[in-house]
Amino acid sequence: MDTKLREAYSVDKFRASGHRIIDLLADHLQQGLSGNQHGALPWRSPESAMQEWTDFAQTSPDIGTFFQRVLAGSVCISDPRYMGHQVCLPAPDAMLAGLLVDYLNNGSGVYEMGMAGTAMEQFVIRQTAKLFAWNDAADGFLTSGGTLANLTALLAARSAKSSNNDWKNGTCKSLSVLVSDQAHYSVDRAARIMGWGEAGITRVPTGANFRMRVDLLPEIFRNSRSEGREIIAVVGCAGTTSTGSFDDLPGIAEFCAANNLWFHVDGAHGAAVAFSRRHRSLVDGIAMADSVTIDFHKMLMTPVLCSALLFRNGQDSFRTFQLEADYLFGEKQSPQADCAARYDLAKRTFECTKAMMSAKIYSLMAIHGLPLLEAQVDHLHNLANVFAKLIANRPGFQLAMQPQSNIVCFRYVANATNGWLMNSQGCHEDAISALTLKVRQALTQEGKHYIVQTKLRGQVWLRCVLTNPFTTSAEMESLLDAIQQLANKAMLADKQ
Ligand SMILES: Cc1ncc(COP(=O)(O)O)c(C=O)c1O
Q1: pLDDT tens digits, 364-406
Q2: Does ligand 1 have an atom closer than 6 angstroms to the CB of 295?
């Protein structure tokens, strides 16, 4: 064997590097949690990052140096000043399960290659389905992200409700789904991927708190049909991406039942509340959904990617892909082999080689139990409320809405007292948006705090996702101080 090959697989080196690396990661985690990093976001321009990583490859680093360099150049989610995107700080046991998954490299597409992974996946699906108050008929699978889960759900919806056999004949009708104007772009993307074009999404306006105007559904449905579109489904948002708002799921369920439509809930962000007795009522009505997307890698302490697509009627989960792959699923064999083949997950998922992602969430459910996930959901919701209170009590700041989830949208409108951005008629919206963009950009380059921005009704707002349970009001206050300072500096610069 080539010496390079032998060296790459050296067990002794693996053991030594592994010990070193776990120490390194544990130290980094400790520093991150205590906020001792330089900041949550070590900003680099794309040009300098490309150059740095090209140059670094020339140095033939050892694995320890490589890890250190990647850690130093990456967003530190364990830093309590991280309040950026929806991904979570994974629980250490789930991170270690990720290492196990990569070590085993067993796929979970076909049962015989993924016995442990498939069984763990079934366990996770059953536990979650019970929280939706579904019975044993429910089923589902894990898949690589909420985007793919939403597309898979809509493929199942098409198979169940379209008047044409689209899988066989191709799409020849103008199909569409009803969805709120706040829905994640993956729903729009799914419709376009299925060949429905722009009209594949029929937007339902949102009202107070960015929730779908369910009262408008009948009229929009009628109009769409008279314009020649065949509506097959309604997608309800259980936690919109921008504001974490929950649609009126019972209202949508009733409308779907009355009109023979598929009811999909995009709960990628917020279906996690089903794990919390305190917050579960936000997804009242989910029991009537035909399918639900939920991301464990958002509020539920699991590393990316780990999403589930669940079906109230498990048979529906076989509707999506009606294809044969003989080398995978084979001919009829013995009764035992045929029974095992019923568990071949790739029959139902997009993935062919499917990562054993179940280990990441199963580890938490088995080692810590569901109360851990409940505690996390409760804690993050509480943090969002604490933050919202701080914002509401600060002169010059404005909340987009009282948070329903762990997402808080707000902005600095200067004020009432110095009148820079407000006049007697109210806000100068465009000036506030311009200022908000500047502040977010300055914060990013400063790198201490990491937050993002979103657009609500055409205006720019700051958006924080309280995803790190170690964030306290001290970091929230320091963020608001920083925003205020940066905004005042930007306004002064504009005046000069
Ligand atoms: C409501 C909603 N749906 C779907 C998605 C897509 O999920 P993923 O990033 O796991 O593909 C997101 C992600 O932000 C989301 O917030």
Answers
A1: 999 999 999 999 999 999 999 999 999 999 999 999 999 999 9
A2: yes
Instruction: State the distance from the centre of ligand 1 to the C-alpha of 465, rounded, in angstroms.
Output: 13
124 C-alpha vs ligand 1 centroid, how far in Å? 19
Query: What CATH number does residue 215 fall under?
Result: 3.40.640.10
Q: What is the 3-state secondary structure (H, E, C) of the chain?
A: CCHHHHHHCCHHHHHHHHHHHHHHHHHHHHHHHCCCCCCCCCCCCHHHHHHHHHHHHCCCCCHHHHHHHHHHCCCCCCCCCECCCCCCCCCHHHHHHHHHHHHHCCCCCCHHHCHHHHHHHHHHHHHHHHHCCCCCCCEEEEECCHHHHHHHHHHHHHHHHCCCCHHHHCCCCCEEEEEECCCCHHHHHHHHHCCCCHHHEEEECECHHHCECHHHHHHHHHHHHHCCCEEEEEEEEECCCCCCCECCHHHHHHHHHHHCCEEEEEECCCHHHHHCCCCHHHHCCHHHCCEEEEECCCCCCCCCCCEEEEECCHHHHHCCCCCCCHHHHCCCCCHHHHHHHCCCHHHCCCCCCCCCCHHHHHHHHHHCCHHHHHHHHHHHHHHHHHHHHHHHCCCCEEECCCCCCCEEEEEECCCCCCCCCEECCEECHHHHHHHHHHHHHHHHHHCCCECEEEEECCEEEEEEECCCCCCCHHHHHHHHHHHHHHHHHHHHHHHC
**Residue 146 CA, ligand 1 centroid: distance in Å:** 5
Q: Are 256 and 329 found together in one domain?
A: yes
Answer whether 206 contacts ligand 1 (Cβ < 6 A): no
Kindly report, residue by residue over 169-212, the tens digit of the pLDDT. 888 889 999 999 999 999 999 999 999 999 999 999 999 999 99
Residue 265 Cβ < 6 Å to ligand 1: no
Does 186 contact ligand 1 (Cβ within 6 A)?
Answer: yes
Give the domain range for residue 439.
372-495
363 and 395 share one domain: no
For residue 478, being part of any structural domain is answered with: yes
Whether residues 150 and 273 share a domain: the answer is yes
* 318 and 174 part of one domain: yes
